[in-house]
Design brief:
single chain; about 150 residues; mainly beta; Immunoglobulin-like; 4-stranded mixed β-sheet; 11 strands; about 10% helix; about 40% strand; globular; DUF2141; DUF2141 domain-containing protein; signal
Length: about 150
């Protein structure tokens, strides 16, 4: 089960995206998100350092309003070299909250290795090292309800 701390990652994404000064050697990361549901709401992509992981902090982020169904490929720009956990949240009922049920998340979510997770994620499981070159990574959305 994904802990409630995951909920706060998305909120951090927007604040981080607007407050970034591009460092020297900054790279871009394209996150190919497969299985995005045709639903209203926003799709949030967030990058966190190990000290920020699963907390109310984030290093970089991007938001897509009303993403199209299928594959979405947002790009997070100006990332300083380092290792970051990558998380995605689809507020698929557009209520501004990460909805949880008795068995875990109801909203759509994705992390590196998310489809094989059976316990709380670790930074090592969900992270990627970014250098000075542009990168890409693929994740798969997981939804906890049939329709929003």
């Amino acid at each position: 089960m994904i802990p409630r701390a995951f909920i706060k990652i998305a909120a951090v994404s927007l604040a981080c995206a607007s407050a970034i000064t591009l460092p020297s050697g900054a790279a871009d990361l394209t996150v190919n998100i497969d299985g995005v549901r045709d639903a209203p709401g926003k799709l949030y992509v967030s990058l966190q350092t190990q000290s920020q992981f699963m907390k109310d902090e984030g290093a970089y982020g991007v938001m897509i309003d009303s993403p199209a169904a299928g594959v979405s490929s947002p790009t997070v720009t100006g990332i300083a070299p380092g290792t970051y956990a990558i998380t995605v949240w689809h507020d698929d009922n557009d209520n501004g909250e990460f909805d949880m049920g008795e068995r875990g998340p109801l909203d759509g979510w994705a992390m590196i290795g998310g489809t094989s997770m059976r316990a709380e994620p670790t930074f090592a499981q969900t992270s990627l090292t970014i250098g000075e070159a542009d990168e890409s990574v693929s994740v798969v959305m997981i939804y906890g309800r049939e329709t929003p």
